[in-house]
Amino acid sequence: MTDKIRTAWAITGSGHYLKECLTLAEQLPDVDLFLSKAAAEVLQVYGFPIKALKQRFKIFHDSTASAPPVGLFYEGIYEQLIVAPATSNSVAKMVCGISDSLVTNVYAQAGKCRIPSIVFACDAAPEMETEAPGGTVMVYPRRIDLENTQRLMDFEYTQVVTSLQSLKDAIGIPALCQNISSF
């Protein structure tokens, strides 16, 4: 076990509050980013080059079938997992116990190690505004997406949050400081 306990922060392929999630991650000490393949693409589209993120975070990519970084959860390195933002696809996989991506695999391993997870589910209301690369758009999550978000709320060692404020509250950051971010 290491002397320094870290936070694992997983990002999926959503732009929903992506900048704000990165700003929150930046405010925490000792954060490692776990990126799904879609997250690596979306980060570039939204103007967050991986090279720049590597200056602040240790980054794990979804590049192997067995996802070796999940072994870190068994070594006592992480005190919590934050999945933010979490797409409806990742939430559905979590609900069904499918761990075929780096993000869903670290979520499964965190649960098996009884490490608390906070999941910021993107699809949480019948109508929502979200940030797209070209600006704000309206989205209308499907009933199945909303149902999966509700189902995940019953999982052990999992706290599902559905707003940026509830994410900040769950993490313990009282206010999003705009000046602290380099993003």
TrEMBL record:
Domain Flavoprotein: 6-152
Domain of life: Bacteria
Gene Ontology terms, MF aspect: catalytic activity
InterPro entries linked: Flavin_trans-like, Flavoprotein
Protein name: Flavoprotein
Species per Swiss-Prot/TrEMBL record: Sedimenticola thiotaurini
